Fold this protein.
Amino acid sequence: MDEEKYLVLIVDRDDDIGRKTRYKTPILGRDNVIEVAQEFALVDPEDSDLNAIYAAIKLYDELTSEGKDVEIAILCGTESTDRSADEKIERELLEVLRITGAKGVYLVSDGAEDEYIIPIITSYVPIKSLRRVVIKQAPNIETTYYVIKKFIEDEKIQKKFILPLAIFFLAYGALMLLGKSSYALATSLLIISIYALIKIYKLESYLARFLFLVKERFSAGGLQVIFNTIALVILLAGTLQAIGVAITFTPNNVTPFAKYASVIAGLKALTWWLYLAYLMIFLGRIVETIVNERRLELDPLISSLTNSLVLVLVIFAILSATHVAFTTNPENAVFSAVTSNDFILYISIAIFIVVMRYIIERMTRHPAKVK
């Protein structure tokens, strides 16, 4: 009888077993593995991991009948199938090796994805044999329709392939319906590119953490999150419009600075969107203060609103003047800029707001005495 201890190992890298049953890995021992297989079969009898489990049990029985000292175990990774999945499998492997003292592994796999962990296993213990389980299909169901249907219904395939296609066609179709056919293809490709970058640089965990924090804030009654989200949408819409304005802008006059006029035009278009986003965030603070503290101080509120409005008016006036200067002959640029209608209008409004605020504050602090 072989004196060395061996381990029949089933690895589920994407954690189908952990997500679909009540068992936590590592799972050790024939009886425990059979219990997991039975429960898994009742939940999802068509999953290929189920066939791998039963194939591993069969191999375990064969090795036992040959007189080998063997144990059987199931290891699971995580749904994300990234570095965290491999690290979890490595931790579970070390735990099982410590318990069993196995000196070799018989690995049973249902596909190439689970075999990514082979280097991890071989760094601790040699693999005596690798068995890939291929599911046999009856001829009457080996049709194109069945293959496509199973392909579409697979949750992993949906997330990795069908989701980006759905996003592409959704964006393309929506823009076509809105009469923006010239932007449809470019926008759709941009969305798919962003999705691809997220997948390539594995940013899903950061997005998931952000969504979890948003969910926590919603659960805790964080009204500010709602307004911040709306502000973000406004900012994105404003940015897209500003880019569109900058791209399509054509100056009337050819001057040395005309090429910069399109940038100024985009910034002018973005200014009021930025202010609207700021107002949405500011409104969220007001609503949350009223809900949580049951009070509202008007003086700081009015002060913040007037200060921000004056700042935006001045910025818009400066951008308008700069825009005029860039599109006017150099000898008249400064004069044309400071006498332009937009510059005079917005600077006048800003001055009026500042003067009125000063008068109101003086009247409030020093009310007229009645004789």
